[in-house]
Amino acid sequence: MFLLPFLVLTFSLVFVLSHQTALLAPITKDHTTHQYTIQAHLKTPLQPTKLLLHLGASFSWLDCYQNYTSSTFSHVPCNSSLCSSLHSLACSNYYSPPGPDPACANDTCALFPENPLTRKATLTNALLDSLALPTTDGSTQLSQLGGLVPDFLFSCSQTSLLQGLAKGVAGLAALGRSNFSLPVQVSRSLSLPRYFALCLSGSRSLPGPVFLGSSGPYFFNSKIDLSKSLIYTPLILNPVGSTVITYYLQPSDEYFIGLTLIKVNGKAVPINASLLTVDENGFGGTKISTVDPYTVLETSIYKAFNDLFVKEALGLNLTVTANTVEPFGVCYAGKDIMSTRVGPAVPTVDLVMQSDDVFWRVFGSNSMVRIERSDADVWCLGFVDGGPHARTSVVIGGHQLEDNLLQFDLESKRLGFSSSILVKGTTCANFNFTSTSSKRIVK
Ligand SMILES: *[C@@H]1O[C@H](CO)[C@@H](O)[C@H](O)[C@H]1NC(C)=O
Ligand SMILES: *[C@@H]1O[C@H](CO)[C@@H](O)[C@H](O)[C@H]1NC(C)=O
Ligand SMILES: *[C@@H]1O[C@H](CO)[C@@H](O)[C@H](O)[C@H]1NC(C)=O
Ligand SMILES: *[C@@H]1O[C@H](CO)[C@@H](O)[C@H](O)[C@H]1NC(C)=O
Ligand SMILES: *[C@@H]1O[C@H](CO)[C@@H](O)[C@H](O)[C@H]1NC(C)=O
Ligand SMILES: *[C@@H]1O[C@H](CO)[C@@H](O)[C@H](O)[C@H]1NC(C)=O
Ligand SMILES: *[C@@H]1O[C@H](CO)[C@@H](O)[C@H](O)[C@H]1NC(C)=O
């Protein structure tokens, strides 16, 4: 009888928390590989784990062959509804050694985790274990491990799948539009709205946040809630995925958007419009990628874009250098370019979506890359040639995403974008992760 009011109180507290609190994770850039990694806590007891951030992947994966010690992992039986909703193509039937083994069990649902950089895949089994992330109210980190998903589903992988990933990375965090991506599992497990928002930081020391299960607010150490000033464009479904192991008739879990025009200084780049639509085989169109360091353009678009940019920059008295720095095609002497609060003063680039007034503005901080070494001191146009047969015509890459807030609204299937938040006097690195000390200064 004494327990009853206590229980009611506990339940109402849980209710209140789940409706005001979202989850959060820090994303750090590895400047050697240009990869973005997310930190999560996994297993029991919880262990900090670095995972490659991949916006387009269907499910997360983790090396299970090194250091997998946990008291809470469990396998997924082949003949289970969970295994069938995973669209698993195989069932593992290993003879288990004595005692539970994460990477080896009889009758266990099998998956093909993939490394997006090497495009290698392995056959391993699905696993369930605990995942914990910080909680947030949108302006600061409330707790480091307060958001617990007790039965997070991912795939094991062999250690060899880690080849090409940054030092210390133990797997991959999938943020794709599938039912088993990290944000969708977080929202399902904690009854949070199916939204996540990403703000990549290019800083060498300070991370940027990803907010999971929150449609806002998003504060970056300023009075401005960035969720209030987003512009929206529909997310487009690509009917054919391009995974290494092809899942028959499975649509892509990557995020495609309807780019219709690229402008430089307000002038349109001449582009064959059919390259910008996704055809029935999944070719063409525009996607967003966190595993491509720079935006990749199909060759004819790349050439037309470079030509117009060079012409418009000439109008600002900027003359290209004789030599360029790989992998870029257009560079300017560092001393020739003045800087502004949105980066080097160069022609602005607009990515125009469904109508003329829906455009993503790219200023110098996102269009140009500074290269300072013994043999060069230049600013280069940070777009690269994807070749004449590129599967996707425009792949918006990491450098163009930094210090922009992107909100993925999986309920209404739309993307909200802020354009450069430097315009608002803040940066992605300004999010207040620390609950007490550590000052963060607007750069
Ligand atoms: C495994 O864990 C030990 C102790 O935590 C650590 O010293 C070692 O580097 C880890 N090995 C790998 C491959 O992660
Ligand atoms: C599991 O297998 C049994 C026998 O093969 C079958 O009757 C049952 O429907 C299966 N269960 C599921 C969840 O697929
Ligand atoms: C493996 O699982 C299958 C199907 O459940 C069962 O028939 C078989 O006996 C199991 N083998 C071992 C070694 O446990
Ligand atoms: C994802 O889950 C929803 C709701 O459970 C279901 O209707 C849909 O078919 C699932 N999608 C895939 C690709 O399995
Ligand atoms: C435009 O691109 C499509 C698809 O690549 C091609 O079939 C067509 O010939 C191109 N049109 C022009 C005018 O180049
Ligand atoms: C470019 O340089 C010329 C000659 O030095 C000068 O007359 C002109 O005003 C400059 N234009 C701009 C946009 O700076
Ligand atoms: C970060 O948030 C904490 C409260 O959670 C606050 O004490 C601290 O002053 C904040 N830091 C900055 C730089 O605003």
Brief rundown of the structure:
This protein is mainly beta. The chain has six helices and 31 strands. The strands form five sheets. It has a 20-stranded mixed beta sheet that branches.
Structure description:
With 443 residues, this protein is mainly β. It has 2 domains: 19-221, Cathepsin D, subunit A, domain 1; 228-425, Cathepsin D, subunit A, domain 1. The chain has helices at residues 3-20, 81-85, 182-190, 299-314, 364-367, 398-401; strands at residues 22-30, 35-42, 47-54, 61-63, 74-75, 90-92, 108-111, 114-115, 120-121, 124-136, 141-157, 169-174, 195-199, 208-212, 231-236, 256-257, 261-264, 267-268, 286-288, 295-297, 331-333, 339-340, 343-344, 349-352, 359-362, 368-373, 376-381, 383-385, 394-396, 404-409, 414-420. It has a 20-stranded mixed beta sheet that branches. Strands 18-17-24-25 form a 4-stranded antiparallel beta sheet. The protein has a 3-stranded antiparallel beta sheet with strand order 21-27-26. Strand 26 (368-373) and strand 27 (376-381) form a beta hairpin. The radius of gyration is 23 Å and the shape is globular. The chain starts with a helix and ends in a 23-residue tail after the last strand. The structure holds 2-acetamido-2-deoxy-beta-D-glucopyranose (7 copies). One 2-acetamido-2-deoxy-beta-D-glucopyranose (NAG) binds next to loops. Its main location: secreted. InterPro entries: Aspartic_peptidase_A1 (IPR001461), PEPTIDASE_A1 (IPR033121), Peptidase_aspartic_dom_sf (IPR021109), TAXi_C (IPR032799), TAXi_N (IPR032861), Xylanase_inhibitor_I-like (IPR033868). Keywords: Secreted, Signal. This is Peptidase A1 domain-containing protein. Residues 1-18 form the signal peptide.
